[in-house]
């Protein structure tokens, strides 16, 4: 499988401070990749370098086969951006806004098709300023995909969304990935969002990539010990074990088939993430 993004030894310094410290990263074509990390981890700087908006100090970077630092205008047409604080054209309608941005590309998708894709056909004639936060984000996505990008950058796309709006947005991102095989690089602070959407996740802290894997396998999560808890003789008890099924069977033999307050828990993605970055849980 061809890589949409290939990074080796990426470094960036600001006034004596190291923001990115030897990052290596591969993202396959058609993959949804989530980059996770605390504030100040080097996440934003890394993504801005990949987008071609910031120069690196050292390292090799190839995005869609070109160096973003020297890339052509044709390369830029293959990149779509949905920024965290995207500006909008409040007094234009949804249709006018999408058509306006379509003019920047040599072969844009039809505006009506894109508006339908993001679920805003009923709002095509509405002014952007009258839309809800979730609907405005859909306009941002429409602008991001109007040029038929091969690679889409999503920066904190659902910040401030209510649960229903977040799930609707997730469905839209899955549709984009499945329909067009668009490669998507997602940055988010929502671990459930990463787990739901991403084929793989990477964790960055202090400018270094700490781990890259599927959400289920990250940091040895799949093979990590489970926590079995239950109530016995009026006392809540807990056991950590690599064989929770055997432990539950043993409890059932001793306490009967209905084990009081039985719970079996494996580490969540959040548990693994916090462990990787060294944050107290």
From TrEMBL:
<keyword id="KW-0046">Antibiotic resistance</keyword>
<dbReference type="InterPro" id="IPR003439">
    <property type="entry name" value="ABC_transporter-like_ATP-bd"/>
</dbReference>
<dbReference type="InterPro" id="IPR017871">
    <property type="entry name" value="ABC_transporter-like_CS"/>
</dbReference>
<dbReference type="GO" id="GO:0016887">
    <property type="term" value="F:ATP hydrolysis activity"/>
</dbReference>
<dbReference type="GO" id="GO:0005886">
    <property type="term" value="C:plasma membrane"/>
</dbReference>
<keyword id="KW-0813">Transport</keyword>
<dbReference type="InterPro" id="IPR027417">
    <property type="entry name" value="P-loop_NTPase"/>
</dbReference>
<keyword id="KW-0067">ATP-binding</keyword>
<dbReference type="GO" id="GO:0046677">
    <property type="term" value="P:response to antibiotic"/>
</dbReference>
<protein>
    <submittedName>
        <fullName>ABC transporter</fullName>
    </submittedName>
</protein>
<dbReference type="GO" id="GO:0005524">
    <property type="term" value="F:ATP binding"/>
</dbReference>
<dbReference type="Pfam" id="PF00005">
    <property type="entry name" value="ABC_tran"/>
</dbReference>
<keyword id="KW-1003">Cell membrane</keyword>
<feature type="domain" description="ABC transporter">
    <location>
        <begin position="5"/>
        <end position="231"/>
    </location>
</feature>
<keyword id="KW-1278">Translocase</keyword>
<dbReference type="InterPro" id="IPR050763">
    <property type="entry name" value="ABC_transporter_ATP-binding"/>
</dbReference>
<keyword id="KW-0547">Nucleotide-binding</keyword>
<keyword id="KW-0472">Membrane</keyword>
<dbReference type="InterPro" id="IPR003593">
    <property type="entry name" value="AAA+_ATPase"/>
</dbReference>
